[in-house]
Task: structure prediction
Amino acid sequence: MTNAPTPTRGLSLGRVFGGRVIVQPSTLLMLVLLAFLFATNGGGDLDRRTFTVGLVLALLLFASVLVHEIAHAAAARAFGRQVHEVVLTLWGGHTTFDARGMTPMVSGVTALAGPVANVLLAALGGLALASGALDITLFSLLAGDLTVAGIVRYLVYANLILAAFNALPGIPMDGGRVLEAIVWAVTGDRYRGVRIAAWAGRVIAIAVVLVVLGYPLAQGRSPQLFELLWAGLIFAILWPAASGALRTAEVLGRREGVTAGTLMVPAVPVRFNATVESARQQADAAGAQEVVVLTADGVPAGHFPVALTDAVPAEQWPSASMQSVTMPLPRGAAVPASLTGADLELALREWWGRTDVWTVAQDGRIVGVVRLGDVMKALQ
Result:
């Protein structure tokens, strides 16, 4: 992101790597749903005991998701990025950070950090189980229904599943962002990477549902409620996210072709003490349609269309100053000809209402004038 996002509403758990850790209220709904799914897995009865066990497992799953998101934050911070928020949501979580000047390396490594963190957690749990020191019954919890070893074993499986699922090469999974970064690095086109990863995400959404429902059918039985709910939940997460990324890539991809240079009107810089006749002559020689008036220190201070000088009687051109036709420009209302995409949109937001045009520079010299209204139309 280019600027700090609007703060997310929810329960604040403090800060990590400079960013707020937030739990959205909708997360509670997912905890209850997961507790129900875990409690009834395999067709078991739903009662106070099984639901409590399911709730404990759901909480541990969300704890693993939190570690996953914190790993994203740690990677972003390692690249010198400001971390804004780590948020647990209905569908899992997300991490926001300053994404200005993003590169394939930063994008790919930051995305990969989440699944790697889950693999490391699973490895640590596996080592602890191998030591044989965790076979302790938690009598204080559910009269011995859970053991330390059982909890750690579940965490190992849960983190391996989280890592494997997030490593799938399609948006919105982290593996999709890694695929996007690879295509971006190879082709130099970020939005081609997004489009490919988004289509891969759509394919994965369908494939996961087919696998979840096809497995019981291959065993000669009908899918259970647990499997149907999981298939629907996974599809409801993956398909809309991949489709949204695809639409965004198409829009932003078109915007990347819009630059200040392609929208500008050719202009010529003229010193403030020039006459109307001199300005017209210089504009005609350069084939310019606009004149940019410079101060004594060479800074743009105003502009006017060459056609506007037609309002000045021709006999007055040699002596008339340009004050009669010049429209003022605020200091700093200038952009490079190469400015494009999100950076062009940011500049538009900054200057909208303060000026109606920018001067356009290339290789340190003024080459044109671009109207902010034309920029807005091109970016829509």
